[in-house]
From TrEMBL:
PANTHER family: BLR2505 PROTEIN (PTHR41252:SF1). Pfam families: SnoaL_2. Residues 19-107 form the SnoaL-like domain. This is SnoaL-like domain-containing protein.
Amino acid sequence: MNTTSSDLVRRRYATGDISLLDDDIIWSVLDTFPEGGGYVGRHAVAERFFPAVRTHFTEYVTTPETFPTDGANVATTGLYRVRTTLGKTGEIAFAHFWTIRNGKIVAFHQVADTAALRDLRAVQETES
């Protein structure tokens, strides 16, 4: 079966399978997002980024909605549905940009609605 770039990204969302990431992936997240910045390598993404992000939320669900694809490049848009550690819930719009090479995800770039995130976090910081 020939797996397309879009299929690979869809599988990543559905399963969270870290093995779909290249060993040397470039992972880039907005600096204004919790634990934002750049990460290099599958280990850094799995062992540093995701565990750190989860400390800010008790629920964090990524729901992709669109998957426009141009060969090795896939753009997804969707919503993060989150609950902060103080129980505040919200939705944050995102766009993810993926690059696929040789059946692996070699690059990821995230942008998100930082105003919505700031509003959720402002409530959390005020109440703590």
